[in-house]
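Slide 14.
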Amino acid sequence: MSKPLVSIVMGSESDLEIMREAGKALEGFGIPYEIDVTSAHRSPDRTAEYARNAAGRGISVIIAGAGGAAHLAGVIAAHTTLPVIGVPIPSTSLKSRLASQEQPTLESWPRKSLPQPIQRGRRSFRPTKKSWPRE
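Slide 15: predicted structure.
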């Protein structure tokens, strides 16, 4: 068997039924993968180590599924430079879907956090799309 290129990880074994579907899709394309269970809440050190060592094991992308508050994808992404795909697992809470799907945009930021004019002598500098955000 060849080395896995994709790591499918979930927060608990109860998520296995849903995450197995990702494995079936990868099998259809002939992409080798591994499946593991690690919790961002119950075993944060193990999860961080798992993410840090993934690239060294030859993994190219991580698919992370979690229900509840869905912290798993974010915790893994914080510890690796590999792409992480977050899969929200259905739960009784809307939090898991929002945590995996919504990312803040410039338009959603509170007005106070946007750059304000900077006074420079008699002139003021108002940030424009070209000058802000700085990369």
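Speaker note: The longest helix spans residues 16-29.
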